[in-house]
Amino acid sequence: MLKENKITIYTFFAIMSLGVLPLVFCQKTDIFVKINSSNCLLLDNIFYYISFLGSGYTYVICLFLLMFFRINNRILLNGSSALLLLTIIVKTMKLLIFSSNHRPIAVLSKEYSIHLVKNITLKHASSFPSGHASIIFSLALFLILNFNFNTFLKFVMLILALMVTCSRIYLGQHFYIDVYIGALVGGLSTILFYSLINNTKYAASFLNTDFITYILKH
Fold it and tell me: Left (φ > 0), alpha (ψ -120 to 50) or beta: where does 40 sit?
């Protein structure tokens, strides 16, 4: 593993470690109210549009573009496996294990007037964890770990991941704990498969070529 990638992974764990503090010292409703109430028209627009980066469609489109530009299968397998794993984990938690966890509007509607952003429809159920947070942190780490971006671009990607995560609270869709666990699941999914796939010696002929070339040859 490259030294730069070890630093990226350590940075992720540092962010997650610091992220525990609000969970320990603050009530989940207090964090939500603080972020959601710090609103203005500019932030409404920024968070509305940036939230789309956390969509599963963004991840899938990214993988298809990489396949089109013939990026090797080792990298594609890292991204697709991480996406599949986090999807299974998040959906299982949302729909089965924590299906009774309600969203902010269902919990706070009687005691706090949630700031509503135009064109955003607030959901009531399946709050935990945040799918958008898991997607964006998985995608950001996937790109940083597998491509030789400079330090500035890596920093920008992590900031964007944090902004997308924050947008889910600002837009009234999630509590802080939802996005925190979502980001943790997404980041760990990418790191797990990055480590496994880059250290495997099996199927080298497939992993070390691109998908289109491999299909044409077989």
Answer: beta
